[in-house]
Amino acid sequence: MDRRQFVPEITAELLADCEREPxxxxxxxxxxxxxxxxxxxxxxxxxxxxxxxLFGEASPVGKPFQHTVSVxxxxxxxxxxxxxxxSRVLRRLIPGREIWLHRxxxxxxxxxxxxxxxxxxxxxxxxxxxxxxLAESTARCHGGGxxxxxxDAIASGFRExxxxxxxxxxxxxxxxxxxxxxxxxxxxxxxYLGLHYPASDIPAQARELYLATRTRVLEDxxxxxxxxxxxxxxxxxDLSLAxxxxxxxxxxKYLANMxxxxxxxxxxxRQGRLWGLIACHHGQPFLPSLxxxxxxxxxxxxxxxxxxxxxxxxxxxxxxxxxxxxxELPGVLETAENWAVGLASREAGLLETLDxxxxxxxxxxxxxxxxxxxxxxxxxxxxxxxxxxxxxxxITDRLGVDVPEFAELGRTAAGxxxxxxxxxxxxxxMWFRSELARTVRWAGDPxxxxxxxxxxxxxxxxxxxEEWLDEVRGTARPWTVAERALVGDAIRTNLxxxxxxxxxxxxxxxxxxxxxxxxQVNDSxxxxxPAGVVTFWNDAATRLYGxxxxxxxxxxxxxFAFEECRPLVENLLDAIRTRGDFVTEHLAQRKDRSTVxxxxxxxxxxxxxxxxxxxxxxxxxxxxxx
Length: 626
Known about the structure:
Number of strands: 27
Largest sheet: 7 strands, antiparallel
Number of helices: 19
Helix content: 25-40%
Radius of gyration: 36 Å
Shape: elongated
Distance between the termini: 83 Å
Strand order of the largest sheet: 1-11-3-2-6-5-4
């Protein structure tokens, strides 16, 4: 199966259908929770249908919430209302219940959550050694060893602590499909380790909710949920922060198809972005205690910290590798035919350091390559694309998927790093990795969740999670954190300085050589910078025009022309800039105002990048021909 992306049959329309499911406002809660919605005046606007378990048969709707609880509890609630968009828990006020307060824009929610269990097996010891486990995990987080081993220890340790049938660490990829990277499970269960799940399993609005609420509980996927009353108000209540928020029927069906009755999930968040999840599954109903929920939240934070620490170390290693490379680069460039050829050379090491298959250096429309690269015309197309982007660096391991116009380049450029050298005229460095077809192990065929309904195709929970293999094409070996840092931090920020230093040395050496060469010719030789300021004036120029070198160096040639000759000199310089080179004869004035017929040849001087660096003017006395 030749695929350019993961599960393309799951279209944007099908995903949009999932996005319309009201998961923030389901209008129902799980039966382990009782809920009151309270407005800014303290009046109950809606309540869950099971509040009679605590408050008797009379409905609290329309009454002050203080009438439903004791005076002391009401006082604690009033003083404990949290900041907007946050939650707070109050303990030991009502036997057998935690009181959760959730603040929103129109008021707040009061949630009475039944106490859960510390372990899945009630007959086992209820006391948890959570502090010891967290202390060991924290020490392991900041110690040595591989991050994979750390995640494995978290999964196995937490499963042993609480007793879940399965505990997994799940990581999201850049395109939001996920992979189980660690797993601890009951021996008789089929393994999920290494299996991939499509992004549609956890759609965008669900991922946003994982950011808002870092832990999520499902006590029993088969239990009926409890609606809010009155029904006219139910769909307006935002339950995003509620511990007992009723979960989507689609999600509960999905879990039931996996043979799962209860779950506990914690979000692994790095710098405000959802990195992954710790997901716990159990085959029987189970409500975890507050201590268990707080422990898994702390473990998720430890995984976030550990993976960030590993990425920091990798980035630092990449930056240091880039700095070493850049320190040696000037010596390579000075001996190269030109700096662009030098950058692409084996001696420069840019190809090898990034472990790429090919490299291209583009200066204007000139392409210098080494290794396996696209054709020059396609490299120039990539340069045009880089020029159109706001960012100076582009990195992808699936160029044809991310930028479909380059899909045909997959054989040589599935992996692509492009760098626009800042403050230069169309100068780019590009690295390429060839396509690496790979087999992805899916948890069931993701396409089997697509069914035909009378009103169109719909995405439904898969009934099978048996391993399904798929060959994915158009992707390359991913760029590591160190490699990304090498390009994005070291090379991008320092390459211009290296090139500028190399060009300064080349210009200095050129001037030395030029002086030796031009002093040996009989013709007048004058060199200016782009603004017309004299940078070289040989002895023959002094003999022809009468001005010596000290008078002219650093001065503009137009300023030293007599007033009546200045228009002629300005026109001459303009003609050279317009045409690139120019030949003319004219009657020139010397310093002593005597005249001489001269033939002047003018030519633009260009630097290694093709940009103008000055003007060369060669003059010869032709009075004997006049």
